Amino acid sequence: MQWVVIIAVLVVLALFVIGIYNGLIGKRNRVDEALAQIEVQLKRRHDLIPNLVEAVKGYMGFEQKVLTEVTQARANAVAAGAQGVAAQAQAENMLTSTLRSLFSVVENYPELKANQNVLNLQEQLTTTENQISFSRQNYNATVLDYNNGIQTFPNVLLAGMFGFLKRDFFDAEPEAAEVPKVDLSLS
Predict the structure, then answer these.
(1) Helical ranges in the chain per DSSP H
(2) CB–CB of 186/142 below 8 Å?
(3) Among 50, 152, 60, which residue's Cα sits nearest to residue 113?
(4) CA dist 57 to 53, 85, 117, Å?
């Protein structure tokens, strides 16, 4: 009879550990999926930027510095994707800042305000920025749930043993939290 009790306790303990492990795997997979959604939106953003730069290049010949900064910031953002979430967030914030500069310069060119291609690209970029913001919020909420999951008792007892590590948030700097806006209306 004593062996049956010991075996029953071991089975319950094993089921408990399996439950915690599977729960943490589910949380980690949700974090990975949320990050993949951000990356999809960032890729779309990165793909739109060369088209926007090309569309405004002819009008802004002597504003080459701004175009070069946007192009360089885009290249840095693409490269930062392999350096982790914190580096990627920082590079994306820099890209947002340079896009703001580009849009403020565009406002000085009435021909660009009337250009349908530029208007279309600007609208697509604004929509993408909104989607990035939503994806970032979803990712950060998922990371919070995951981090809480690995840091609370009794999960904390097993999380480190099974290699569950704390994840970084995808932070936006305060000025980067705003969607770049430009008024391209003829006024």
Answers:
(1) 2-57, 64-80, 85-106, 110-114, 116-151, 155-159
(2) no
(3) 60
(4) 6, 32, 12
Q: Say how far apart CA 121 and CA 117 lie, in whole Å.
A: 6
The C-alpha atoms of residue 107 and residue 112 are separated, in whole angstroms, by 8
Which has the higher per-residue pLDDT, 76 or 109? 76
* Sequence letter at residue 111: E
Cα Rg of the chain (Å, integer): 24
Count Cβ atoms within 10 A of the Cβ of residue 30 and give its class: 0-12 exposed, 13-18 middle, 19 or more buried: middle
DSSP reduced 3-state for 63: helix
The hierarchical CATH code for the domain 16-177 is: 1.20.1440.20
Please tell me which residue, 182 or 163, carries the higher pLDDT value: 163
| Inter-helix orientation angle 64-80/85-106, to 10° | 160
